[in-house]
Amino acid sequence: MTGRDPIADLRRIAFLLERANEASFRVKAFRSAAKTLAELPAEELATRAGAGTLTELSGVGDVTARTVTESLRGEEPVYLRRLLATEGLDLDEEAAALRAALRGDCHTHSDWSDGGSPIEEMALAAVELGHEYLVLTDHSPRLTVARGLTAARLRRQLDYVAAVNDALPEGFRILTGIEVDILDDGSLDQDEELLARLDVVVGSVHSNLRDPKARMTRRMLAAVANPHLDILGHCTGRMVAARPPGVTGPGDRGHRARTRPPSDFDADAVFAACAEYDKAVEINSRPERQDPPKRLIRLAVEAGCRFAINTDAHAPGQLDWQRFGCERAARCGVPAERVVNTWSAEALLDWAGSHSG
Ligand SMILES: [Zn+2]
Ligand SMILES: [Zn+2]
Asked: What span, in angstroms and rounded, lies between the C-alpha atoms of 54 and 44?
């Protein structure tokens, strides 16, 4: 016997999930496990937890079984601990504070790849939002459907951005960047020399999203370890049913029509690597992405990761979508000081520069 009541822990989790407006299937999973296990004699509960046979019972899955086992050992279940991290906070207030702390956006597209607007218009919209910087991250060559930039076109873009910057208001600048494809072997889809020249590199998986777990994990670990990568973009690649409000860029049309499950990878290992190499995990604000899911954001918080709350905007109006990412981050207890785009442009550049040595 221990000091904890596993049934009470399951019910508490269900309550907290419900209050946080999480998916109802998840709430139900904890409630039905609690119901099943409450009817079990305490002795059988302990025996089954010891033998690892709780999941043979109807309504008990891996996550709920793990929670019960931790409870019976007298530990606060990890799942509960993560939820409790944000308890007592006014989440709307936290989200607003986080949004107010953001000084820029590290993932945006222009009409040089699949965005709908010229670089100047994106920049002016960012100025109006009060940003100090905007990282321009058009796609890399292999993403031909998104008119990914060849090395030659990216070079031309760098010259162009330098000229646009000269004409922009004092106190604001466009930082150079790329959303580079993470290829099948984990390498990055652009010339080394160019990646080294860019201010900020976001790396994302856009192909073979159904790679088996071990392969996807290896692929992502290699990318995170690459000194050129600074931010791991929309790490699960999932698409949820929500439609973005308002106007979207031409490149979004394909995205909106379909949903897609998250990729399968060892999130513990990938987030541990992000923490080790001091890379940021992106919280992608797009309503149809909401990537990573909150469960994974909480995991990354615990792993000690840094974050970037980005819009992945393909049109100027979408630059205002950061508030969606801030809401999700607040619900998961992401501290503002760990969000790299709450920093000044200088601090961001120092951090990104520290990766390439
Ligand atoms: Zn992307
Ligand atoms: Zn993007």
From this structure: 10
